[in-house]
Design a protein that fits this description.
Distance between the termini: 16 Å
Largest sheet: 6 strands, mixed
Oligomer: single chain
Strand order of the largest sheet: 4-1-5-8-6-7
CATH architecture: 3-Layer(aba) Sandwich
CATH class: Alpha Beta
Number of helices: 7
Helix content: 25-40%
Order of helices and strands: EHEEHEHEEHEHEHH
Number of strands: 8
Number of domains: 1
CATH superfamily: Zn-dependent exopeptidases
Length: 225
């Protein structure tokens, strides 16, 4: 499926690959406290999760993000990544939010994979209960989530999460990158790395391509509205 891209050309999209390859060896940096939003603080970042065979979330998210970037650029969008390699540290989660805000992004997506129970499967679309952008941005973020829900169901090979949230949606109040966003933004958990079926899809080049297309097509659908 290819989404209607009318009105999308020239807009800025920020893609945020979760975590980073150097986080594990820089505990002091990633454990420093940063603003979480609404008077709270949270650690700069974490190492992320991994499959039982060691395949790391940070590697998966960067691989998928590069595919999404390439797809969106083919449709005339300017795409900014919050990190440009998989060997660095951070950036901190508040900085990731600021990158989207400073770019006045038309949409921002944070790409992750979960580390849930081995029997749990599926994708999650995480939304801020309240963001710094206010009610209008929150409403736009929900429309973005709805569009990705449709494309994930059709294209990704994943099912909505059967162990957390409701039908693939999950509102959260503790995610800095969403709380501090002043642009439409959601987080996508692309399956559960501790589940053998989801992990097989995540480790497959074809599986990652399907997820990346679902993300790109959801963004294009949102921008074409």
């Amino acid at each position: 499926m290819r989404a209607n891209t009318v009105g999308a050309t020239g807009k800025v999209v920020v893609i945020d690959p979760g975590h980073d390859g150097g986080n594990e060896t820089h505990a002091a940096e990633i454990n420093q406290l940063v603003p979480q939003g609404f008077g709270q603080e949270k650690a700069c970042d974490t190492t992320g999760t991994n499959g039982d065979d060691g395949y790391a979330e940070h590697q998966f998210t960067f691989q998928v993000s590069l595919l999404v970037k390439a797809d969106l650029e083919q449709h005339g969008l300017r795409v900014i990544l919050t990190r440009n390699n998989d060997t660095g540290v951070g950036p901190c989660v508040n900085v990731r939010a600021a990158i989207g805000n400073d770019a006045h992004a038309a949409a921002a997506i944070s790409i992750h994979a979960d580390g849930g129970p081995a029997g749990g499967r599926g994708y999650q679309l995480l939304e801020a209960e309240n963001s710094a952008g206010g009610a209008s941005v929150d409403a736009a973020s929900h429309r973005l989530a709805v569009d990705l829900h449709s494309t994930f169901n059709q294209e990704s090979g994943l099912v909505p999460s059967n162990y957390v949230g409701s039908d693939g949606y999950e509102p959260r109040d503790d995610l800095t990158g969403l709380n501090l966003s002043t642009v439409p933004k959601i987080m996508v958990e692309c399956g559960n790395m501790r589940n053998a079926s989801d992990l097989a899809l995540e480790e497959s080049a074809a599986g990652r391509a399907r997820m990346a297309q679902a993300i790109a097509d959801g963004i294009l659908r949102f921008l074409g509205q």
